[in-house]
Structures are given as structure tokens and as C-alpha cells.
Amino acid sequence: MRPLAAAVAGRHPVAPHRVDPPAGVARVPVSLPAMTNIGNADPAPPLLMTPGPTRVPERVLRAGMRMLHHRTPEFSAVLDETLQRLRLLYGTGSADILPIHGTGRAGTEAAVVNLFDPGDTVVACCNGKFSEMWAGFAELYGLRVVRVATDWEASVDPGEVAAALAAHPNARAVTVVYSETSTGALNPVPEIARMARARGALTLVDTVSALGGTPFRFDAWGVDVAVTASQKCLMSGPGLAFVALSSEARAAAEVGGTPRSYLDFRSILRSVGRPRPETPGTAPVMLVLQVREALRMIDEEGVDAVFERHRAMAARVRGWAEANGLGLSGRGILERSPTVTSVLLPPGVAAEAVRAGVRRRGIQIAAATGAHQASAVRIGHLGDIRMADVDRTLRALDDVLSAPGDDREAKGGGAP
Ligand code: PLP
Q1: C-alpha to C-alpha distance for 223 and 191, rounded to whole angstroms
Q2: Strand 179-180 relative to strand 185-186: parallel, antiparallel, unpaired?
Q3: Where are the alpha helices (DSSP H) in 155-215?
Q4: Which of left, alpha, beta for 230 (phi over 0: left; psi -120 to 50: alpha)?
Q5: Is the C-beta atom of 104 inside 6 A of ligand 1?
Q6: 47 lines ligand 1 (CB under 6 A)
Q7: Ligand 1 atom having least distance to the Cα of 52
Q8: How far is the CA of 105 from the centre of ligand 1 (A)?
């Protein structure tokens, strides 16, 4: 029998693939660049010093450059290892860990639709953009939201949460963002969880910019739901979230919740709970491969060393700010996140111009949020970011802030 290609070619002679330029136009030799920077057409992508997404190490990128079918023992083994390794970072021996196919906000939205019925009351700590976003999801799904700690300049005061729980004894849960990426606050989750448990309420924590950058103790602190995402301390591409569930949260999802399909914890639990774990539909296989590799790298570096690296990088940024007479946004923040720092710029210096100047030096930093949008910048120091990257960023900032003219002044003047 003739090979198929030869048989097809015999029936339909195929001309060699060649496109001639129109008459009068010279043929330009085209050579493709060698793949030294895998998958990246830009020979010099900026250093991402944003609080997510952040640099994905080449080893992680390479690990994801493989396609597996999601209904195979090979993929089940990858998923299983990923969930087991995440369990260690979450600090839990008993929680269920669910992959959610979407970015971080899919995880926070999933928690709302699975655990609560319309009309349920939740106490929402709202001291930043992401905590306010979570409260907004809850409202959208018909929950009664009691907002507390609404000052974006401050940490959550556990006393305020206690008072709200006392005033609303029917509250089913408290929501809080551990590392509030928009302000740089690291909120007192252990105290909040203790109070919620004493009142019979669940504690839901957004750990999107915290897990893998700072210690987290799901079991010891009495947390019920903890959401994270692939593109921050987990050093992977964006598009995959994870939710850890206590047995109490799982029970709530079994009996309640709004109508849901794609984000239904019950079907995800059934699939990941099989002897060979799976996901209900097609899994983002390449992202799961990336996260598994990133978790292996964290293990190789040593999780305590990883946390210490984050702490030291945050301290370096804060020390630089202090040495330069610059403040940090959030005068009432009691504990600062080791993964992101929001630095106030000198009066009259426009944040947008500073970010553009730093970008011209090959580094991307983030805009500040809320009242500080025009007058502060946020520096992410998380995931694969190293001290040398922090120092390079601070040198660029020194350069921009000391440069007269274009680099520091906004068109039309800076913020006061
Ligand atoms: N929560 C926190 C604390 C975040 O930092 C972010 C994103 O920056 C989100 C939620 C939303 O996650 P995503 O953008 O992955 O949907």
C-alpha cells in the first residue's frame, strides 16, 4: 500500500509552497529568529515589576510547552501533584483544593455562587479595590452585604468585624483580602477568622497576591475558603484559579448556592475526587503543567527561603522609599504585604510620567489605585522576582526621579 501522503499527492499534485512577489517588487529574504526567548516575539520584553501578572521563569514556560489529553493517566498525575503541592502552601491537610478555569476573580465569584443563597447576609471587609470587588459580586447575586473597614488607607480592624457580626448574628460569612494588592495592606486574617468561627460564620479569604509569597495557615487559622490564582506568586501564566474549601464550606456548597454550572463546586469536587483526578470539562493542561513546575521550583528553593526572599524584597523597597523621603500610601496600614508596595511620589511629580520613564528603561511598574492614582506607583515584588530585579527597578526610579524634564512632569502638571 502506498503511504497516504504519496497517494494524496498522486491524485492532487501539490505545487511547492511559494509566493512570488508582484512584478517589480524585489524578493526579500526572510529569516526567522532562533527561539532563544521561547514563545516571545519581543526580543526584550519589559521586566514585569507589577503585582501580577509577573515574570514566568523560562523553566515554567518550557514545562507548559507540551500538550496532554486531559482524560489520561498522565494528566491526572500532573493535576494530582499540583493539588498536593498547593495543599502545602495553603497549610492544610484536610481542605479540598479545586481548580477553577479562569483568573482570580472567577475563584472569588465561584465562592459566592456556590456557598450562598440570595438574601443571605455576609460581612465584607472593603479596604481596597479587590475586597470591594468581592462585595460587589455578592450584591450582584442578591446577598445582603454589610460593608466594614471601608478605609482604603488602613488595615482591617478586627474589632469592626466583631461589631458587625454582633449586630448581624445571622451573617453567614466574612470576606477579606489577605494581601490587598491595590493598597499593599496585609490584613489580619487569623484574628478575623477566629471571630467569625466564634459566631458560626465562615471566613472567605482572597489570597490571590499572597499564597506562595507569605505564610498562610488555612487549618490553623480556621479559614473556610481561600482563593488564589496562577499569575502571581505561583509564577505561571494567567488563567487558572484555585479554591481551598473547608468541610463546613463544602457542606454549604452541597446544600445551597445560586443556580450555577461551569463554576459548580459539586461537579468539580466529583471530578477531582476520583482516584485519578480530573476536571469536569477540558482542563487548561498547559497552565496546570506550568503551575506544577512552579510549585516544584518553590519546593526546591525551600518555601521558607521563598517567604524570606519576598520579605527582604519588600523591606528593600520600603527602605529605599524612606531613604528618599518618600512615604507609602495607606497611613493606617499596620502590616504591609511582602508582595506589593505602593510608594507615594514627591509632590508635583506625576505617577503616569514616572511609570512611562521607568517603562522606557525596560521595566513595567503598576499604577496606584483610588485616591493615589495620580500620585503613587505600585511595585510588585513577587513570584520569580529577585533582589537584583528590585535593585534594577529602584535604580531606574532614582534615575527618573532625578531626571529633569520629561521623565517626571506630567503634561499639564503633576498631582499636588
Ligand atoms: N484579588 C486580588 C487580591 C488581586 O490582586 C487580583 C488581581 O490583581 C484579583 C483578585 C483579581 O484577579 P484576576 O485579575 O486574576 O481575575
Answers
A1: 11
A2: antiparallel
A3: 158-167, 189-198
A4: alpha
A5: yes
A6: no
A7: 8
A8: 6
362: CA distance to ligand 1 center in Å? 24
Provide the percentage of residues in the chain whose pLDDT is more than 90: 85
Q: What is the pLDDT of residues 244-294, one digit of tens each?
A: 999 999 999 999 899 999 999 999 999 999 999 999 999 999 999 999 999
Tell me the pLDDT tens digit for each residue of 136-148.
999 999 999 999 9
Secondary structure in 3-state letters for 206-227 = ECCCCECCECCCHHHHCCCEEE
Residues 6+ apart with CB under 8 A from 357: 396, 399, 400, 403, 406, 407, 408
Let me know if 22 is exposed, middle or buried by CB neighbors in 10 A (0-12, 13-18, 19+): exposed
SS3 405: helix
Amino acid at site 81:
E
Write out pLDDT tens, residues 101-156.
999 999 999 999 999 999 999 999 999 999 999 999 999 999 999 999 999 999 99
Q: Residues 152, 128: contact at Cβ < 8 Å?
A: yes
Which residues, in sequence order, are CB contacts of 5 under 8 Å at separation 6+? none
Q: What residue owns the CA closest to ligand 1's atom 9?
A: 104
* 177 CA: nearest ligand 1 atom: 3
Residue of the CA atom closest to atom 13 of ligand 1: 104
| CB 105, CB 138: distance < 8 Å | no
Confidence band of 313 (pLDDT split at 50, 70, 90): very high
- Of 101, 105, 109, the one to substitute when testing ligand 1's pocket (max ligand atoms within 8 A of C-beta) is 105
3-state SS class at 70: coil
C-alpha 190/C-alpha 212 separation (Å) is 17
Task: Evaluate: CB of 130 within 6 angstroms of ligand 1.
Answer: yes
Q: What's the CA gap between 350 and 335, in Å, rounded? A: 27
The CB of 155 under 6 Å from ligand 1? The reply is no
Q: Is the CB of 157 under 6 A from ligand 1?
A: no
d(CA 52, CA 37) in angstroms, rounded, equals 20
Could you tell me if the CB of 178 is within 6 A of ligand 1?
no
